[in-house]
Design brief:
This is Secreted protein. The termini are far apart. The protein has helices at about 5-15, 35-50, 65-85, 95-100, 105-115, 120-135, 135-145, 155-170, 175-185, 200-205, 210-220, 225-240, 245-260. Helix 5 packs parallel to helix 13 (about 245-260), helix 9 runs antiparallel to helix 10 (about 200-205) and helix 11 (about 210-220) runs antiparallel to helix 12. The protein has one domain (about 5-20, about 40-55, about 90-260). It is mostly helical. It is built from 13 helices and no strands.
Length: about 260
């Protein structure tokens, strides 16, 4: 298996990133996708290359072999994390400020509340990156979610993304596990069931991913085991009260799910 294919596969598993130029930095303005995606990609590339992620340390060139090795190391740690399964019945709610620092939390709430249009809003994106730079752990998880949506088109963006993955794993932020789990699910055969709860979902829910708590909690609340059902209700309530944007987001999701079941 050649180096470029191996690297591309690893980064795909790590959240949908495909670093197309394993050994050469490419101009971030080269965008082969739809015209309306060009500006969004340029904003993301600019943010990751021009100091908005300097809190991760100095940016440097990294060759494809080292990038693949570091990505594989993170993936190995994620597998170890999820292998040490915890009992979801023991779930304890922790709001963002109880998990870690959350300066400029209103910027994260505004970003989440504006999705998907937030991805095209320079001010919201700039404020999200600023909150991440100030140490807001939830903002950092959202920055990773944003970066994982598109292929990394240059060396610096790929390097910063792997650095961010390493930071999230080291700090036990389950959003990383949830995003990687979704990427793995999408690479399987057949059409993935978005509602199916996986080990990565459970791990993420137990480690402060509020979307995962909402998803897993709804499933557990239907359990015949009273301990699991109670834990599920706690998860759903915790997720809804984490941020106003989450509450609105989950209300819409539940309303849509209810409508689809009646059709």
């Amino acid at each position: 298996m050649n180096g470029k294919f191996t690297l591309g596969l690893l980064l795909l598993m790590a959240g949908g990133l495909i670093y197309a130029a394993a050994h050469q930095e490419r101009d971030a303005t080269r965008w082969s996708g739809p015209r309306d995606g060009h500006a969004e990609h340029a904003r993301m590339a600019h943010a990751s290359r021009h100091g908005d992620m300097s809190w991760l340390g100095p940016a440097r060139r990294i060759d494809g072999d080292e990038l693949a090795q570091r990505t594989q190391s993170v993936m190995s740690k994620l597998r170890q994390d999820m292998a040490a399964a915890q009992d979801p019945a023991g779930f304890e709610c922790r709001h963002p400020a109880e998990v870690g620092p959350v300066p400029s939390l209103d910027a994260v709430d505004a970003w989440l509340g504006g999705l998907p249009a937030s991805r095209h809003d320079r001010k919201l994106m700039r404020n999200l990156y600023r909150a991440a730079a100030e140490g807001n752990w939830l903002a950092r998880a959202q920055v990773y979610a944003l970066l994982s949506e598109r292929p990394a088109r240059d060396n610096t963006t790929a390097y910063r993304t792997v650095q961010l993955m390493e930071w999230l794993q080291e700090h036990g932020i389950g959003a990383l596990h949830g995003i990687v789990g979704e990427a793995l699910k999408s690479t399987g055969s057949g059409r993935p069931d978005a509602s199916a709860v996986t080990v990565s979902d459970i791990y993420a829910a137990l480690h402060h991913s509020y979307p995962a708590q909402h998803k897993v909690g709804r499933e557990l609340s239907r359990s015949e085991d009273p301990r699991l059902a109670a834990a599920g209700r706690r998860m759903v309530e915790c997720a809804a009260h984490a941020l106003p944007a989450f509450e609105r987001m989950f209300e819409v999701e539940m309303a849509q799910a209810g409508g689809s079941t009646r059709q």
